Structures are given as C-alpha cells and as structure tokens.
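Changelog note: in this version the structure field was regenerated for every chain. One regenerated record is shown below for reference.
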Amino acid sequence: MDSARATIDQLKIKLSQASLPSDISEKLLNLLQFPGTGAELEKLIAYIDFVVSLPFNKLSQDILDLPRAKEILDKNHYGLQSVKDRILEYLAVLILNKRKSYAQAFGHAPILAFIGLAGSGKTSLAYSIAESLGRPLQRIPFGGLGDPLMLRGQSRVHLDSEPGQIIKAIKSAGVNNPVILLDEIDRVEQDRRVDIMGVLVELLDPAQNQAFLDHYLDFPYDLSQVLFIATANNTSNIATAVLDRLEPIQMPSYSDEEKITIGKNYLLPKIIEENGLGSDMLMIDEMAWPQIIRPLGYDGGIRSLQRSLQSICRKVARGVVEGEIGPFKVGVENVGEYLGG
C-alpha cells in the first residue's frame, strides 16, 4: 500500500510539473482520487504517462522560404515539373497566410493528395514538403487497414486498450504541428471502408479536427495545426466526402530516358552508399541501362529500377567481401547475372 501511495504521489508531482491544459490536468488528478490497485493502477500510470508526453503546446518553427523549398524538391526529385509547380504554389499560399498571422492557416489549407502508380514518387514528395517546412513527418500506412479503431484508439475499459495511430504519431513527432502522411488511403479493407472514410473526413475537416476524439485519451485533441498529406494509387475507392476535402495531384509516369537519369544521378549513388561500397567500385555501361530499367517490361514507376540497382549492388558487395578485385563492371553481356535472383 505504501508503494502504491508513493507512486500516486509521484504522479501528482509529475502532473503539477507538466504543461497540460487545465481541464485535462484536473481530469487526471480526479482519476488519482480512486486509482485502484494492481493491474488497474498500472493501466492508469501508463495512461497518465502517455497524456503527459503529448506536445499540447509545442510547435516546430516553420521555415517560410520558397526558394529553399524549390531547391529541396529539385535535389530530391528529377522531372515532375508540373507536380513541383503545384507544390510550390501550395506552399506559397501557406507562407503568405502564415505571414499574415492567420493562426489556423495551415490547418485550413486543402489537403494535398498525390495520386499515381506505385513508385511514382508520391511518398518521397511528402518527405520533401516536410523537409522544406522544417517539420517532422509521421507516416501512417492505410494499406490493408481494416479497423477504424487503429486510427481512433481503443477505450481504456478494454484490456487491450491503446491510443490510435493519429495520436501516436503526434506523440512520436514531439510537436503539435507535424506533417502526417496518410499513405495509400485507397487500399483500406473494403468491408470497413465506410467507417474508415468517416474517420478520414473528421481528420481532414478543419471544422472537426480541432476536437478529434481518440477513444483511449477520452478527451478532444486539437489537430488543426497538423499538415496532412495523402497518397493513393487511384481515387475510385475513396469516398466522395473525403475527395471533397482533398486537392488531388496526378503523378505522371516516367519515360525510359527519365528513369535512366533518375537511376544514374539519384538512386545509384544512394544505393551504393547504403551497401557499404565506394563510388569507384561499380561501373555500369551505358548500353546496360535499358535492361536495368525494364527487367520485366514497362513500369511507369521506379520501384523495379530501384530493386534492380539494389540487386546489382548486393552482388558487388558480396564480391568485395569474398575478395574479388574491383571495380566491378556491368555491361550488356553480364547484366543478367547481376539482375538474377
């Protein structure tokens, strides 16, 4: 009993030192009046620790620099000029509104939604937007999502209660205004699609997300400062009410020439480094690139190209470890060996 009382006293001290809204602090203190014992007390401790860790009043400082944003987009993405222009226009509006001190400007902006094939750069564009604004990014995958409680949390009356992915993302980001990427929102399980789309409407609607209710928290949480970005392969499985709150940007397919440039200048240097190789250990003949970018036929994205280059670099890495002397040369005559399983 003394141990439990000491724990409760420590929780009260923690609450007194935390920067919590007064109504939430009062709610938690009331819970400590009848904290229970054993497993019940442990659940209460976990709940209070989680709530105290939320960044209620902590915001990251936005970087309002459009030339810098353009530089980041050009550094991270080859081509896609029309998409980049749309993003820069979007950021320009956000920057102007922010400079006018519209506190909710970012929260009320339309939600960008990148629509296109796998490997077309949708997710990486979201990371570039976050980088340009100086905000942390949290990704929530929707592929195969079949339970809206994964987003909204499970009530603490249940044994397996836990916060939803949205509130977990806020905690992980450590600030109240991260970029949250809602990835592949068209790929939720069909039989729970209506329920999940209902949660999405609440998340993306500025009239509702100021008081988003996570069942685990059991109090409204303000998401109006979050910058949401969505991706999808197509819009056919997205509810009309959700689409109404999105600004779709169609991702173009890459031509073979663009994919070769992306492979040489963007993907290969990064993959070489990831595999522990020196930049002088691998040479790819110009004539081998058409087979590298189309190992299984046409692909509008760059996923297969990325896999091909990873396969090549892994085989080079094995050769280096086994004592072969480089540089390793990939040409038309041996590219099949490097691309093989």
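Spot check on this record: The mean pLDDT is 89. The radius of gyration is 24 Å.
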